[in-house]
Design a protein that fits this description.
Helix 10 (about 175-185) crosses helix 11. The radius of gyration is 25 Å and the shape is globular. It has a two-stranded antiparallel sheet with strand order 1-2. The protein has helices at about 20-30, 35-45, 50-60, 80-100, 105-115, 120-125, 125-140, 145-155, 155-160, 175-185, 195-205, 240-250, 250-265, 275-285, 290-300, 315-330, 335-345, 370-390, 390-400, 410-420, 425-440, 445, 460-470, and strands spanning about 230, 235. Strand 1 and strand 2 form a beta hairpin. It is about 55% helix and about 0% strand. The chain has about 475 residues and is mainly alpha-helical. The longest helix is centred in the first third of the chain and has 22 residues, at about 80-100. It has a domain at about 315-475. It is built from 23 helices and 2 strands.
Length: about 475
């Protein structure tokens, strides 16, 4: 059972429930990829409701990422398609990673919806189709969910992945119709029958026209099933848009509940609160399936900011790295970020490649004895890279957090608490961390107050503490 309390009403700070750094970081770790110190300060200067309203509005109004030069390239335009396409894929992996770091809210929701409307690039492979898919995710991730469903279903990546391009009157293919109901809108065995799937597949026929690999896939009237179809009890010569309209008209409550439950499990807790889900679903329907009002209601709520919501979800691979980059402010470069993408793949999360059509299940699935060691090894690589290339940034990071404080115990606790949602459990744990931070500096220098962060030893003291922190179980949580 969930221990989370608090209603869907807006969170209003009290003496017992502060609007503080801990809650701001909680928001950014869940709805984005961590917060910079400047973002934390800006958030604390506003009320929680105003902060959430403003940041979601900003993400909603962001222009989509500029298309690459190859956004519409088709096979005949390549001179060496295998080499060039691989280069384009790498370029866009890096673009997506930078989008997550530079526009973390939209980056987060783009990633979330890529794990809902799943495609796998290994099935379609084409660069222009990859870009188109990404663009649709960005365009609709804060928009209207009904329009989102319409757009994603006829994107080339989806048409290839779930065989829509093979769905014709003569040879109907039920793959997309099944997943449309089972995974994308209603949930397993929720408000549809096998006959609904069969009839829907017929209505979705015709998106088969393609001139060459990587070209747009368009509607071919000759492949469309012109017969009468009965879907959710309604009969007519339905086509693609009719299917989506009927689905939302006849099964709106199920759609709203299913999507809001999925949002809740991802952003709040795997243990759902049916009352909160019901209230979110009502907001979803009242607002004609616009997503932003649901996001705002959830992220403004006292339920989301409840103490028992904080620090209970396991970070995904991209979480653990991107949150760290943003919360330290340490340098990166393109090579380092590409290595991060590779590390993430090695420990379970390959960009553009969810594990199957149901997507990554997340949370506890992210951690096992192998992936945990993989995380440690990745951070060892990264922190030594910082040491070799940007050593003074270790000192700068600590000073930005603690100012002129000299007490090693206080410095250690501030740094530890910066990364851990709920800090450490005992004073003994903080004592161990403090001893690691002191490193080999003689105790008398701390006792007489002569030591400070300007000492030559300070960057090394900080890096050994950071090595300790990234190996803590609590560091894996958000």
């Amino acid at each position: 059972m969930s221990c989370i309390t608090g209603s869907i009403s807006q969170f209003v700070p009290t003496a017992q429930k502060l609007w503080d750094k801990k809650r701001v970081q909680h928001f950014y770790r869940r709805a984005g990829f961590g917060a910079t110190n400047n973002e934390i300060e800006q958030a604390l200067s506003k009320t929680p409701a105003t902060f959430v309203e403003d940041i979601i509005n900003t993400a909603t109004n962001l222009a989509t990422t500029e298309p690459p030069s190859w956004a519409n390239m088709v096979e005949s335009e390549y001179t060496n398609i295998d080499v060039q396409m691989q280069e384009q894929h790498v370029e866009w992996y890096l673009e997506w990673e930078n989008d997550m770091l530079n526009n973390p809210l939209r980056g987060r929701f783009t990633f979330f919806w890529s794990n809902h409307f799943v495609t796998r690039m290994e099935d379609y492979w084409c660069s222009s189709w990859m870009y188109n898919y990404y663009n649709v995710l960005q365009q609709y991730s804060f928009g209207n969910f009904k329009e989102f469903v319409k757009a994603i279903g006829i994107s080339p990546a989806m048409l290839i992945f779930l065989n829509g391009y093979q769905n014709s009157a003569d040879e109907p293919n039920e793959n997309y119709a099944r997943e449309l109901f089972e995974l994308f809108t209603l949930g397993v065995n929720n408000g549809y029958t096998q006959n609904d799937i069969v009839e829907t597949a017929k209505a979705l026929t015709g998106y088969t026209a393609i001139n060459e690999f990587c070209a747009p896939i368009s509607f071919n009237e000759n492949d469309f099933d012109n017969s009468s179809k009965t879907i959710f009890g309604r009969t007519g010569n339905w086509g693609y848009n009719d299917v989506i309209d009927i689905l939302f008209e006849e099964r709106g409550t199920q759609i709203a509940t299913y999507i809001c439950e999925k949002l809740y499990k991802y952003f709040v807790s795997p243990e759902v609160d049916s009352t909160i889900i019901s209230e979110l679903a009502n907001t979803f329907m009242v607002n004609n399936f616009e997503l932003a009002p649901v996001y705002k209601q959830l992220f403004k709520s006292e339920h989301f900011f409840d103490e028992n919501t904080i620090g209970i979800l396991v970070k995904s691979p991209f979480d653990v790295f991107n949150i760290y980059f943003r919360e330290t402010g340490f340098a990166t470069d393109s090579e380092l970020l590409l290595n991060t993408i590779w590390f993430s793949s090695e420990i379970g999360q390959t960009i553009f490649e969810p594990v199957d059509v149901a997507g990554w299940q997340g949370n506890h699935d992210w951690i096992n004895s192998s992936t945990l060691v993989g995380r440690w090894n990745a951070f060892e690589y990264y922190l030594w890279w910082i040491w070799d290339n940007h050593k003074e940034s270790l000192r700068d990071f600590a000073q930005n957090l603690v100012g002129d404080i000299k007490n090693p115990s206080v410095i250690t606790q501030i740094i530890v608490d910066h990364f851990l949602s709920n800090g450490l459990q005992t004073e003994t744990d903080y004592g161990i961390a403090t001893a690691i931070f002191k490193n080999e500096v003689p105790q008398n220098y701390f006792d007489n107050g002569s030591w400070n962060l300007q000492w030559e030893s300070a960057p090394y003291q900080i890096i050994v503490l950071l090595f300790h922190i990234v190996r803590l179980p609590e560091f894996q949580l958000k």
